[in-house]
Every structure is written in C-alpha cells, then in structure tokens.
Design a protein that fits this description.
Strand content: 5-15%
Number of helices: 4
Distance between the termini: 121 Å
Order of helices and strands: HHEEEHH
Strand order of the largest sheet: 1-2-3
Structural class: mainly alpha
Largest sheet: 3 strands, antiparallel
Length: about 180
Amino acid sequence: MARRLETTERRRQSLFDAQLELAQTLARLEEQAKTLGAAGPATRAQAAEEVSDLARTDAARLAEEAAVLQLLKTTIDIAQAEASRRYLAPITERVAPYIRRLLPTASLAFGEDLRPSRLIRGGVEEAADDLSKGTQEQIAVLTRLAFADLLLARGKPASLVLDGAWCLRTTTGSRR
C-alpha cells in the first residue's frame, strides 16, 4: 500500500508539473498571439509601403544631388583647364623655340602641375617621365630659361637656378 501511495504521489506530482508547464506555454502563446495580432499582414504591408515610399523619395533626392555634383565637377574641370591653358600658353610659346633648337620636330606640353608632361616628336607623344634622364634635364633647363625670359619680358627680375646635379655633370655623364 505504501508503495502504491508513493507511486500515486509521484504520478500526481508529474501531472502537476506537466499542468504547470502547459499553463506557461499557453500564457506565452497567448502573448505571442496578441503581439502578432497587432502586426498582422495588413499592418506589415502598410509599414512596408511606407518604407518603400521613403526609399523612393531618398533615391530621387540622391539622384538629383548626384546630377548637381556632376555638373559642378564638370564646371570646375572646364574652369581649371581654361585657367591652366591661359596660364601655360605664354610659357608654352616661350619654350617652343628652345625645344625646336634641341629637337627640331618636337613640341612640349605641360600638365596641370605646371611641369612638362609630354614631348611630342613627329606626331608621337611621349610621357616626360618616360624620357631619358638626360632629355628630362635638358627640358628642365629649357623650361627654366623660358620662365626667366617670360618674367624679364614682363619687367620682373628673374634669376635662373640650375640644380647641382645638372651643373656637376661631366661630358661622360658621371658626377665630379
């Protein structure tokens, strides 16, 4: 009898624990149903439509901003090229005779950084950095002469500075 009572008591406790667990599960499911009820398909669809409208508005605003920035960049590039051309035209004209003395069929083009950027010989363009060091040095000296001439023609005092590396070369190209 004691054994039967003990078995019955364990069974009752087990059923009680199961009932408690089911009650907790039911409470959790009811809370979840309440939460999902407020966010049903219609509510979620409306929220998605609002997000979509905002995204379209932002995309249109960003596209307009990109167009304005592209126009600004183009305008600045044109203005910069024109200013560079206006500034470099006199020096390009001054250096031309010197370049023709050294290389009769050549002309020199300057970059926006005001340095010689290309040498055009016989219709073929060569990047200044690709020229031999000797040719680069000769062009540098001729460009300095042209700048000095331009300054003197405008009544400005001009000093011509040649760097030490060029001045110290011997006829064999080695340094003294």
